[in-house]
Amino acid sequence: MITKLIRGVVATAALAMGVTTFCGTAQADHHMPGKGVVIQPGQDNVDGENFQTILVIKALKELGYEVKSVQNAKYPTLHIAIANGDVTFMADHWNPLHQAFYDAAGGEAKLSRTGNYLPGCAQGYLIDKKTADKYGISNIGQLKDPKIAKLFDANDDGKADLAGCVPGWGCERVIEHQMDAFGLRDTVKHNQGEYSAIIAETIARYKEGKPILYYTWTPYWVSGVLVPGDDVTWIEVPHSAHPNNVDTKLPNGKNYGFEVNTQMIVANTDFVANNPAAAKLFEVMNVSVNDVSAQNLKMKEKGEGGWKAAERHADAWIAANRKTFDSWLEAARAAAQ
């Protein structure tokens, strides 16, 4: 009798342990829906976009995904790599600037593009405020005048030197289109190359008190060094002229030649179909332009540049915004149930 009683107690205990283990496993699986799934992130080699990519990587890791080191390539190549499944996602697709890359890679049949990760990204042309005020320059069309253009001549060839866009970024398509549309070829030279080197030369000229003309975007650290309204001023374009045949005039009537963009997370469609947690995460993540601008400006401080520093910045942002970050994770976990 006693033996049977002991056996019964042991069996009951074993059953209870089994139920507890099952529940624990279920909870663990719910908490880590990405467990066992490997992800390959991609990014263009743009230091100002490290922070955005890292935030997504850290969120994916908290969901249990195994995330490889980021693979760098130019934007057109990245879109194709994502469509082919060689890269899982990129966090810095500029919509609508990168529409041509998106379409060329197969569009919505191959690429998932949801949410509004980083809205309100502006682009355009700027000149130093001193020259703008002295000569009354407010529109890039005024550079058709050789005398005005020569003010921004950095190499004595008689043309204004425009610090422009890296080939393959997408912005160079717009600038090149506008060079023809606004009749600027004879008076303006669009300098293309490594943007960090070109803009460094531009900043050096400004510090020497010389006129400058350049293209930039926000969020990026440049506007923390050359502050619009104080050091430099945005200049407008004569009219809308865009390779995608869109109207770039803003609701306030201003026209800076570029549409306001949203940085979005683009991912492989098969991946998101099979990973609802990641798909929901990509949809709900949202960061402000001001936060990214602040991080980008911090990169210019000693020891704060590069990927490792951006990881520290991301950790600090997550700690300060833990409630928001956790809400993304919970939405992702709920989608996986």
From TrEMBL:
UniProt source species: Magnetovibrio blakemorei
Signal peptide (from-to): 1-28
Example of a GO MF term: transmembrane transporter activity
Signal is among the record's keywords: yes
Cellular component annotations (GO), alphabetically ordered: ATP-binding cassette (ABC) transporter complex
A family per Pfam: OpuAC
Domain ABC-type glycine betaine transport system substrate-binding, residue spans: 39-319
Keywords: Signal
Protein name per the record: Glycine betaine ABC transporter substrate-binding protein
Keyword Transmembrane: no
SUPFAM superfamilies noted in UniProt: Periplasmic binding protein-like II
